[in-house]
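Input/output pair, single chain:
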Amino acid sequence: MGSLESVRFPCVLVLGLVACASPTQEGADAGTADGKLSLGAAASGQGHHEVSNGGAVRLVEGPQGGHHVWLSLRVGDVGVDENTRGLVVRYALRDSNRSLGQGRSYVSLTSVDGAFEDDGIPMLLQQDVEPSAWTEHAVQVAVDLVSREGTVLATAEREWRVGCCDVWSPGGQGGVDAGFIATLPQDCTTYCDVQMSYCAENEQRMHATSEECQSACALFPETGLPGETSGNTLQCRIHYVGLVASDPRYCGHLAEYFGFYCRDDCAHYCRVMAAQCDAFPTTQECLNACDAYPRVGQRGDPPSDTLVCRTERAEAGDCASALADSPVCRRPDAGR
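Output:
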């Protein structure tokens, strides 16, 4: 079986149909070519359990409306153990029509009954995928285990029947102490010290040094509330750093959590608008207005017609510029 870049599913135009055998159907029950990589769908702390080809798994809806499938894995004899550093899992998801998502995450193996396992790896769906009607949606899953040097150590493929949706409450999974997370100080010292103390591998940290971390943290807006799981704020990032303090296996997943959840969104925009401006009679009216703001660009960009721009203006207390008819947040060519 080839790596993720070269793997080809038989009958590409009709993936997911019974008449089209996948590599996993032609191979071992475990869905691998060599028996060295077993796949499951366990959240962090639940422990790996094999999900065979054709097995049913649940899609998970995150706090910001995104979706993911948990991935767990069991690794056989591929020359790695719990002391092997820099391991990465690459994943690709698709159905009969299109790509649904792809990404990578670091792996922290634990020795279990003569093999090595990890769980709680989120395989993220693309933002433009709408899975709310899925009951037993056929999804092809392809996974590579890759060494620090880029060598593909093992591959596995599945076709799972995916149903929507469980709701994920970060901090409520697999032994993570949500009460402990809520007590963390909401400052850059916490954000940086936890990563440096608990994430031993540089590859799994968001920042290489404490100094670099402090410099980056100083730029994060502090307009969130403790315990928030979404929004481009320091408070959101500290929540996910708190997961690491409760369970270091989360170290390898910080990039996904920050990028997927700790970003500008309508919930955060409306919280700031409610605190700073008397612009919307109800939260729902604010959310309805926010839905029309383009989700492009990033913080620090020149003013433009975006949600990010309006959120920055709201945080600065410039309420008029945070609305739909903003004199600041508009297209550069507007009014010409």
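Confidence is low (pLDDT under 50) at residues 1-33, 171-175. The chain has nine helices and nine strands.
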